[in-house]
Structures are given as C-alpha cells and as structure tokens.
Amino acid sequence: MSHKVTLIPGDGIGPEVSGAARRAVDATGVKIDWETAELNPEIIAKTGQSLPQHVIESLERTGIGLKAPVTTPVAGGYTSVNVALRKRLDLYANVRPVRSIPGLVTRFSDVKIDMVIFRENTEDLYSGLEHEVIPDVVTSLKVITRAASVRIAETAFRYAISNGRKKVAAIHKANIMKLADGLFLRCCREIAQRHPEIDYRELIVDNASMQLVIRPEQFDILLLPNLYGDIVSDLAAGLVGGLGVVPGANLGENHAVFEAVHGSAPDIAGKGIANPTAMMLSAAMMLVHLREQAAADLLQAAVEKIYSAKLHLTPDVGGSAGTQEFTDAVIAAMC
Ligand code: NAI
C-alpha cells in the first residue's frame, strides 16, 4: 500500500535536508506517493498569501506532511507561515523528542538524555495580536485558554502512559503571569490528578532552564506553553548535539506535520553542509505515525550506525562530510 504525503521543501537549507530525508525514506522500501507543495518567500510574494491555498489543499488531501523550514522575516514583513499553518490545521501539539545519540560527542556525552517536549502550538504570545498603543508603546497579547491547555496536557500524559514514561514536569512563570500561566498550570494539575501513576511536578521556567543545563538527565516529559516550549526546545537541542539532530511533529486531530526543530539556517544554505539528521528523524516519526514501524526502526538504526562509527558526519557535529555524503552513508547502512 502506498501512503500519500505532502512534502514541503521550504527554503534555505530546507530543500537540501528534505531531499535527503525523502531519499532515506524511499530507501526503507516504504511506498510513499509524495506530493510536493512549494512554500517559501518567493511563493508567498507571488501569491500574496502568507499561507498559500495550494499548501492547505495538499495537506487537506493527504492529512500528513513532511515539512522543511520556511524563513520568516524578522521585525516586520509577513506573519510566520509556520505559526499560520499550525493554527489553520489546528496542529495543537508540538512533540519534540530530545535524546542523546550514541557516539555523538557533546559537552554532555557522559549523561544519558532522553526527554520529550510537549509544546502547546496554537496560542500564547504567538497569537500575533500586537498593537501600537501610542508611538513607542506596544502591547502584545498573550492568550492562554483552558481548552488549549487541557488538550496539550492530556496529550502529554497520554503519551507518558502509552510510552512507559514516569514523569511530567509542567514549566511556567505563574509567579509573575498569575492569570495566564496560572490557568495553564491549573489545567496541567487537573489532568495530573487523573493520572496519579505519573510523577507530576512544576518548575518555573528560569529554574527549569538552569536545571536542564546542570542536570538534564532528571527530565522525562516537559509540558510547556508555546513560547517557553520554543525556547526550551533549542536549549535542549544544544544538550544533545545541536539543532541538526532534533526532530519534531506537529499533531492535530486530523492532520500531522513532521518537521525538525531547526529553522532555514541562512548562514549555511546552499553550501551542501546542512545536517539532515533532524529531518530524517522527523521522517522516522512520520513512519511510526503511518504505522510503518519496521521502516522507522530501519531508518533510525541506520542514522545511529553512522554516529556510532563517527564517520561521514557533517561539520555541526564535528565531522567534515556534506549533506550528500551523510545521506549516502545512511542509505548504505540500511542494506
Ligand atoms: P536556525 O535554526 O535556522 O539556525 C540556528 C543555527 O543553527 C545556525 O547557526 C544554523 O546554521 C544552525 N543549524 C540549524 N539547522 C542546522 C542543520 N540542519 N545543520 C547544521 N546546522 C544547523 O535558526 P535562526 O537562524 O534563528 O532562523 C533562521 C530562519 O528560520 C528564521 O527566518 C526563522 O524564522 C526560521 N525558522 C523556521 C522554522 C520552521 O520553519 N519551522 C523554525 C525555526 C526558525
């Protein structure tokens, strides 16, 4: 049986890493009917829509996307297509497994890091509701709702139970944002009470950041509102080798879009040195979602084999290979 998947190559390093991930998925032997949907600054300028209709139509058809990063202009320009896509398809859960890769030397190689980040994906300060009250005075609305907070908390606890995880830590700043983060926290507590078998605790985001750096092995599942989830994801990626190696999924009731934590990396775009690991591992998460567990395991094992051998690695993780060489090695490791 073949699966229909929307492939969004994005821009910057996106086409390089998504091309590599597509080759690796095809090499597992799984039959994927790829439907390519271009989404990049040129298309956005041409169509005049920050979320062009053809992308939505394709994802509505397939229900599944493998998405590379898309650049968002800083301090002006159009609104983030990534945020728009997550809201439009109600992809409310951003799930990011952060794990030590055996063989990959990092500052934290001597500890085993194995945590999963559950970031609320549709609201908080990403509501995009900003307003210049008077010249030089701007407000930005942080929106927290019971519905979205309960939904992400339930998703995290459900995942913990079905994956044999033991601990959930809710991360907040409710000492300062007593109403907004207070509501988020109340919702997390309600869900936690229904699952007494899971060890639940709460940490203020500044302390959580320090704890992540000094004792990352203590964390299992992290449950966060959107902004803290975004920042803590990059921090956590830094513990296991950087943005080049951490995958992710955006999950909703009817759609799932798999994408790496990293962005379009304009500083290395077009140089052929981007690390496609994060995209490949996102693709492995997609294969699990498609119930192609054997293919997912094959891809995951092939990537790990390359790291264990410490050969064919890209410069961000201490090697000197290019995207192509790494990808060829992963594919060869599957045979
Ligand atoms: P970034 O993640 O693109 O890059 C940060 C640093 O990590 C850079 O030094 C980059 O070279 C390195 N890096 C990232 N991915 C890598 C990879 N696969 N291999 C090797 N090195 C890698 O973050 P930055 O520079 O803050 O953002 C660039 C653009 O990406 C912005 O327009 C931002 O809005 C967008 N972005 C898009 C996302 C998405 O489409 N989901 C997510 C995050 C950022």
**Fraction of residues in H or I helices:** 40-55%
CATH superfamily of the largest domain: Isopropylmalate Dehydrogenase
Number of continuous helical runs: 11
Q: Which geometry do the CA atoms define? A: globular
Kindly identify the CATH topology of the largest domain. Isopropylmalate Dehydrogenase
Q: Rounded to an integer, what's the Rg over CA atoms?
A: 20 Å
Mean pLDDT: 97
**Overall CATH class of the largest domain:** Alpha Beta
Runs in which pLDDT lies below 50 for 5 or more consecutive residues are none
Largest sheet: 10 strands, mixed
Strand order of the largest sheet: 2-1-3-12-11-4-5-10-8-9
As for the number of domains, it is 2
Category from helices, strands and their pairing: alpha/beta
- Give me the strand/helix succession: EHEHHEHEEEEHEHEHEHEEHHH
Which small molecules are bound? 1,4-dihydronicotinamide adenine dinucleotide
Strand content: 15-25%
- The overall strand count is 12
What does this structure look like?
With 335 residues, the protein is α/β, with parallel strands linked by helices. It folds into 2 domains: 1-98 and 243-335, Isopropylmalate Dehydrogenase (3-Layer(aba) Sandwich), CATH 3.40.718; 107-240, Isopropylmalate Dehydrogenase. Helices cover 40% and strands 18% of the residues. The protein contains 11 helices and 12 strands. The protein has a 10-stranded mixed sheet, sandwiched between helices. The protein has a two-stranded antiparallel ribbon with strand order 6-7. The radius of gyration is 20 Å and the shape is globular. The model has no long low-confidence stretch (mean pLDDT 97).
